[in-house]
Amino acid sequence: MKLLLLAGLGALFFAYYWDDHFDPASLQGARVLLTGASAGVGEELAYHYARLGSHLVLTAHTEALLQRVVGNCRKLGALKVFYIAADMASPEAPGHVVQFALDKLGGLDYLVLNHIGGLPAGTRVRSPKATRWLLQVNFLSYVQLTSLALPSLTDSKGSLVVVSSLLGRVPASFSAPYSAAKLALDGFFGSLRRELGVQDVNVAITQCVLGLGDRASPSERFRGISRAKAAPGPKAALAVIRGGATRAAGVFYPWRLHLLCLLRAWWPHPRASWFVRQELNVSAAAAA
User: Fold this and answer.
1) Distance in angstroms (rounded) separating the CA atoms of residues 86 and 61
2) Per-residue pLDDT tens listing for the chain (288 residues)
3) In what order do the strands lie in the sheet with 55-60?
4) Whole-model pTM above 0.85?
5) Is 79 left (phi over 0), alpha (psi -120 to 50) or beta?
6) Which are the catalytic amino acids?
7) Rounded to whole angstroms, how far apart are CA atoms 186 and 179?
8) C-alpha distances in angstroms, 251 versus 57, 136, 189, 257?
9) CA 171 to CA 33: how far, in whole Å?
10) Distance, CA of 236 to chain centre
11) Helical residues (DSSP H) of the chain, grouped into ranges
């Protein structure tokens, strides 16, 4: 019976994700601020937006990598693409980034929050210092960027797209500070969506849960965490863009992650946790 229920849910999710009424033309000329744009899914997001004719401001920590991505975006046909290097460990960085984007684009239609940060070398994983650092980069900077961009997004009836990972729904061993930041993202943006609805503010919030393999940065490879099976970066990025453009509340890529999260919530039993661990605990050799 439970297997039949899961199969039925799978069919429903497949139908939902397949029929999302995505119109690529809606992104022509859209003003997009994208963080974490220098590698992995963020880089692929930049390339998709460039192909679709969006106007871009890209930000990440490393200027040289950003310059390469900007050059590729121009080759793909982006008419307007700018970059600003910023370290989100600095509380001042979000303000500089948002003001730069507003100055260059004249406003925002999309704020796509994708950046992540691992621990500086030599920092103990569960120390208070490590936790504060991870929360600033992976949570507080998201809150700051959102607060600063929200007036412009309200004017444009725009969208907030928050890219997270499975660790925001299913904590894993040896990831306590990082999982705390991802769980905080889930709670904050879920509550903010409700608040905006109550206040009749027409800004969509799309929360994206990606398998760890889609977050192609060494900063998610904490000691003791096995990475999930890698999913194709371009496909994951396109799923995020489709979700944001259609103003979906949530995106799960691969889609089976939604079933895993529901299974863990509905069936809090060791066997349910076993299914989740199969998604998380893949050997490093298989993930490479």
Assistant:
1) 5
2) 555 455 555 545 554 455 568 999 999 999 999 999 999 999 999 999 999 999 999 999 999 999 999 999 999 999 999 999 999 999 999 999 999 999 999 999 999 999 998 766 555 666 788 888 889 999 999 999 999 999 999 999 999 999 987 776 776 677 788 888 988 999 999 999 999 999 999 999 999 988 755 444 434 444 333 344 444 588 999 999 999 999 999 998 876 665 666 555 555 555 545 455 554 543 333 333
3) 81-85, 55-60, 31-35, 110-113, 159-165, 204-210, 250-253
4) no
5) alpha
6) 178
7) 11
8) 23, 24, 14, 10
9) 29
10) 10
11) 2-18, 40-51, 63-75, 93-105, 128-135, 141-156, 176-198, 233-245, 256-266, 270-280, 284-287
Residues in the chain: 288
Q: Is 233 helix (H, G, I), strand (E, B) or coil?
A: helix
How many distinct helices (H) and strands (E) make up the chain?
Answer: 11, 7
On whether the CB atoms of residues 245 and 22 are closer than 8 A, the answer is yes
How many Cα atoms within 13 Å fall on the side-chain side of residue 201? Answer: 19
Amino acid (1-letter code) at residue 173: S
